[in-house]
């Protein structure tokens, strides 16, 4: 079985030489374990943080060890009660072709209920982040005007669509290409959208939301956050979900120069980590699952094929090569 190891901690932007695809023997199964042929694995922005050696909410990857992350696969051997060969499992041992998984740390997923990769995207961690970050953290309510950055990505595209479905007065998104802007407007039903590479974010946001915004869902940080602080209305709310513009920074980035807006406009700015919001999961599965079945929620993915392309997919994610969730397909 092949698996990806981190062989060097990246300095700034990761490069292919920081990783190695290695052939390893598949270990024997212990009691309570299953052997899973991974079919899909996810690459996510938070994995960049795990490549650094530092304290965080999740431990760093170890050098010369397999990386891990979400994956969905098919059980090919089982020593666990209640799990049969042929079952499909969502588990945390991605970045490898075959995984020996403790059945207690995996959940069964139904291939007929949704496409298997959806459990890594809209029905999984990113979807849950969008749902909890908008409805819980930002206390979204009907009539709010919402701005989301990283809007064509896995989390952002769901944030914008949930806001529309829940009665937002206006939904504005930013993304890094004209084609993504077209997708936001035509496929996801955003009211306004702009390419942040086409001009200063502040000016473009002002044009897109002349009356200001009630909620900012931040996936990007930096100049996007600064622009949003200017555009927010009195008692506006901000979800700090991600700051991807800074994940490869080699020096401490400078902060927005307009933090006084938080004071003047009595803003509420709150960080989030999705795993804190597990109590919302049943409600999330029911509501978002319903929107997928009814076709009200449009879901897109960018799929790279083959274990050997997993690092390309991760590097591509950081460069914005994905529209919707970035997925690696390992087998049929
Ligand atoms: P995406 O699918 O949005 O992929 C990342 C996107 O980030 C790229 O497609 C790219 O799109 C954009 N990007 C890259 N560099 C920059 C930059 N310098 N400025 C602006 N945009 C940039 O990933 P996810 O949906 O999985 O994650 C989105 C954000 O949410 C990330 O910040 C992530 O860390 C965060 N997150 C936080 C969680 C939490 O619990 N707090 C959980 C899950 C995700 P473009 O072409 O538009 O530049």
Automatic annotation (TrEMBL):
Pfam family name, one: ADH_zinc_N
CDD domains per UniProt: PGDH (cd05288)
Domain Enoyl reductase (ER) as annotated: residue spans: 14-328
Superkingdom of origin organism: Bacteria
Claim: Oxidoreductase is one of the keywords in the record: yes
Keyword check for Oxidoreductase: yes
Annotated protein name in UniProt: NADP-dependent oxidoreductase
Organism classification: Bacteria, Bacillati, Actinomycetota, Actinomycetes, Kitasatosporales
């Amino acid at each position: 079985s092949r698996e990806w190891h981190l062989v060097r901690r990246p300095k700034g932007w990761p490069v292919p030489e920081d990783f190695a695809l290695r052939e390893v023997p598949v270990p024997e199964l212990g009691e309570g374990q299953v052997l899973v042929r991974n079919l899909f694995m996810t690459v996510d922005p938070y994995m960049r943080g795990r490549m650094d050696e530092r304290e965080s909410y999740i431990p760093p990857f170890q050098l010369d060890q397999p990386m891990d992350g979400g994956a969905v696969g098919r059980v090919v051997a089982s020593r666990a009660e209640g799990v049969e060969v042929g079952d499909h499992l969502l588990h945390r041992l991605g970045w490898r072709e075959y995984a020996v998984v403790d059945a207690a740390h995996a959940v069964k997923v139904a291939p007929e209920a949704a496409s298997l990769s959806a459990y890594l995207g809209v029905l999984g961690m990113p979807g849950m982040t969008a749902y909890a970050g908008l409805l819980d953290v930002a206390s979204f309510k009907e009539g709010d005007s919402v701005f989301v950055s990283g809007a064509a990505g896995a989390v952002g595209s769901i944030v914008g669509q949930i806001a529309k479905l829940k009665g937002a007065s206006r939904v504005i998104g930013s993304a890094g290409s004209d084609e993504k802007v077209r997708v936001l407007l035509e496929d996801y039903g955003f009211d306004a959208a702009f390419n942040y590479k086409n001009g200063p974010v502040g000016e473009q946001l002002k044009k897109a939301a002349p009356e200001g915004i009630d909620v900012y869902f931040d996936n990007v940080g930096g100049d996007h956050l600064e622009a949003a602080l200017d555009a927010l209305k009195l008692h506006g709310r901000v979800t700090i979900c991600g700051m991807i513009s800074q994940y490869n920074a080699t020096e401490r980035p400078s902060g927005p120069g307009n933090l006084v807006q938080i004071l003047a406009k009595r803003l509420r700015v709150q960080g989030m980590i999705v795993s804190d919001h597990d109590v919302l999961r049943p409600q999330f599965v029911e509501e978002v699952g319903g929107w997928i079945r009814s076709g009200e929620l449009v879901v897109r993915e960018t799929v790279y094929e083959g274990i050997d392309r997993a690092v390309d997919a991760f590097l591509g994610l950081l460069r914005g090569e994905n529209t919707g969730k970035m997925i690696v397909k390992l087998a049929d």
